[in-house]
Amino acid sequence: MTDFFLAVMDPNLPFFRYALLTGLFASIPFGVIGTFVVVRKISYIAGAIAHCVLGGIGLGLYLEKAVGITWFGPMQGAVLVALLAAVILALVSRHARQREDSVIGALWAVGMATGLLFIAKTPGYVDPMSYLFGNILLVSQSDFLFVLVLDVVVVVLVWLFYNSFLAVCFDEEFARLRGVKTGWIYLLLLCLAALTIVLLVRVVGIVMVIALLTIPASIAGNFSKNILQMMLFSTSLCALFVVLGLGISYDLDLPSGPVIIIIAAIVYLLVLLGGKLRKKFAVVPK
Amino acid sequence: MSDKGIKSAITIRDLSFAYDTQAVLTDVNLSVRPFDSICVVGPNGGGKSTLIKLIVGLLQPDSGTVRIFGEKPESGRGRMGYVPQYARYDPQFPISVFEVVCMGRLGGSLTGKFSTDDKDHAMDALTEIGLSALANRPFSEISGGQRQRVLIARALASQGDILILDEPTANIDHESEQHFFDLLAELNQRMTILMVTHEVGFASTFFKRIACVNTKVVIHPTSALTGDLIHEMYGGDLQMIRHDHCCGVEGHQHD
C-alpha cells in the first residue's frame, strides 16, 4: 500500500493522482444517485443505461475517426446516448407497464450491438474490452474536470429536489396525488443516473457499473435511518473502496476495476453475514 | 366548510370502467354527502380498489363522471387525503416517521421544498393521531398499527375535507383497530370518510352507510343492516362474512 502512496506523490506519475482524485470525487454522485437507484429498485434500469453507453461510445468513435467530426468523441456520444436511454426508459415505465422488463432487456442488447457495429466500421484498432472493463489509470485532466462538474450538478439538483425524489422513490402514487409531476421527477432521476453511469464507465467499465452504483448504497442501507444518511455513508464507502482497490491493484499488479468491485462485494457479504449473526445471537430486549 | 352550496362531497354518475375488455365497474352511481361516513365492501376483484383509484383520479373512467365537490378529481385532489395500505411499503426503506408525514405537504412548491408552515402542519397532524413522540423514529421500526396511523397523519397533513382509506384494518391487531375507529369517529366530525374493506362485521358500528361493490355498486344505510339484509347481501350469516368472506360466491342479490 505504501508503494501506491509513493506513486501517487511522484510528480512523474500524474495519472495516479488523477485516478485517485477522480475516484474520490466520483464517489459523490455514485453514493447519492446509487442510494436512489437502490431504494427505488431500478438497478436493472441502470444496467440497461450502462450497456447502451457502448452504443454512444461506438457512435462517438465512428463520427470522430471515420466521419472526421472533431468535436464529437466517445465521451459526447456516451453522454448523448445515456440521456436518450434514460428518456426512453422513463417513457417505457410510464406506458409499457407489465412489459417493462422485456423492453429494458431489448434496449440493453440493442445498445451494445449498435456500439459494436460502429466500432467495427471505425478505422484503426479499437479494443472494446477497455470500455467494457474500464481503466481508471487512463483518466485525463479533462475527465477529472468532468467529474467535478457532475458533482456540482448532482449535489445541487438533489438538494433542490430532495423531497420530490424521496417521495417518488417511497410512494410515487401518493406523490402524484399531491400534484407532484412524478413523471418529470422520475425522468430527472434517470438522467442524473445516466450521467453518473457515463462517469462510472470510465472508472470500472460498463460491465461493473452496477456493482459500484449499488453495492456501497446497499451496505449503507443497512445502517441508515434516512436517505441523507444513506447517501453520506455510501459516498464514504465508495471512496474507501476506490482508494483500497487502487492501492491493492497497484501492489499486486492487477487491473483496478475488478479489484475495486471484489473489495466492495466482500464488504457487502460480511455486512450481510454480520446482520444475520447479530439477529441470531441478539439478546432480545424485553 | 366553504361549500355550503354544494350538497355532495363525492358524486359519481353513470360510471363504467374496464381493464382492457374486462368490465370492472358498470353503471355506478354514488353520492357522498359532506361529513358522511361510508364503507365500501365487496369481494376481492369486485372493483373496490378500482373505485377508489377512479375517485382520486389515478384512473380515468371509460364513461361517466367523477366529481369532488363539483370539480374533476385532478383539480379536487388537494381536498382528498388518501391512505393506502401500509403493507405495500418496502420495509427496508430508510425514512423517518416525520419525513413520511411531510409528504402530505408536497405539491406546494415546484421542487418540493417544505416551508416552516409545512413542517408545522405535519407535526400537528402527527400530534393529532398521538404519535408525535415517534417523529424521528424510522418508519420501518414502528408497529403495523402505528404505521397505519402515520399514514393517516400524512393524509391529515394535506388538510383535505375527505379522508379515503384503502383496507386500513388489514394486518392490524384488535386493540389498534379499536383505537383506529375512535380516531375515525373523531375525524368524522370535520371530514367526510370513505373506507374500503373486505371485513364487514364492524362496519355497522361506525359507518352511516355501506356501499357494496361487485361490478355494480349498491348503497345500504347501516340502520337497515339487519341480519336479514346481511343474509341477503352476502348469502350467508355474519360469522361467515367475517371469516370466510363469501360475498358473491353464492349469488349476490340486492334488489
What features would you describe in this structure?
The complex is a heterodimer of chains A (286) and B (255). With 286 residues, chain A is an all-alpha fold. Chain A has one domain: ABC transporter involved in vitamin B12 uptake, BtuC. Chain A contains 11 helices and no strands. In chain A, α9 crosses α10. The N and C termini of chain A lie far apart (47 Å). The model of chain A has no long low-confidence stretch (mean pLDDT 89). Helix content of chain B is 31%, strand content 23%. Chain B has a 6-stranded mixed beta sheet, with helices on both faces. A 3-stranded antiparallel beta sheet of chain B has the order 2-1-4. Chain B is globular. Classes of the chains: A mainly alpha (286), B alpha/beta (255). Chains A and B meet through α7 and α10 of A and α3 of B.
Summarize the SSE layout with pairings.
The complex is a heterodimer of chains A (286) and B (255).
Chain A: H1 2-9, H2 14-39, H3 43-67, H4 74-95, H5 100-120, H6 128-133, H7 141-177, H8 182-204, H9 209-221, H10 227-252, H11 256-281
Chain B: E1 10-19, E2 22-32, E3 37-41, H1 48-56, E4 63-68, H2 73-76, E5 80-83, H3 97-102, H4 116-128, H5 144-157, E6 162-166, H6 174-187, E7 192-197, H7 203-206, E8 209-214, E9 216-221, H8 227-234, H9 238-244
